[in-house]
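Known limitations

Structure tokens in this collection are predictions and should be treated as such. Users comparing against experimental data should check residue numbering before alignment. To illustrate the layout, the record for Nicotinamide riboside transporter PnuC is reproduced below. The input appears on top and the generated tokens appear beneath it.
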Amino acid sequence: MFIFDRMNLYDLFVKPYESYDSLQIILETSGAIFGTLSVYFSIKKNIWVYPTGIISTLIYVYILFNFGLLGDCLINVYYTIMSVYGWVLWAKNSEDHIHVDVTWATRKEWFYASILFVLSLALVTIIYYYKPYIDNKFSMEGTNLGLYHLDWANWMDVFTTSIFLVGMWFMAKQRIENWIFWIIGDFICIPMMIFKGLGITSVQYLVFTIMAILGYLNWKKSFKEKKVQ
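Generated tokens:
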């Protein structure tokens, strides 16, 4: 909460946009709307989670790269790829080609998820190590590689990227645990996006956190009802 001690709501949510052009504001708003729709469809176990999600992630790939959140940018590239994979998987496992049944993850899947988490931490850390080289238009002239340039938001970005990678994979597998990862990651992203001057996106992550909790309860209830039948 230390951010709010130093800045008022105007500084957090309005002032950063004074320097943005109309296109940036429209893109961020559109990305937030489609992202929210995607989470809504996910709660309903509706396959439209993927086409709406793809639109949102492609928008955020552009936005987050420009704001220097390479880890979060990478996760949205991964989201796009996994959305295509999940779209195919959900369509294949759906009787009406719209809705799917959900289950809990197996021990084997948790093992794979752990490996994915560790590999993601390593990959995103490497990307940030080379960030000065990337920012210098892929030139080593006057560039010092390392992690010295990272602020707390960047380190949180590394962590949340790994969380979201696992969550996305579990969602494609129609596993109830995916919501646990979304809840944790979305909550962490609220102050991170405020710090980066993305007020609209920070509000989106607040909404995502609430929706993820509802999604977890809904999927858990659906599984119990299916098991009784």
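For this record: Confidence is low (pLDDT under 50) at residues 1-6. The chain has ten helices and no strands. Please report discrepancies through the issue tracker.
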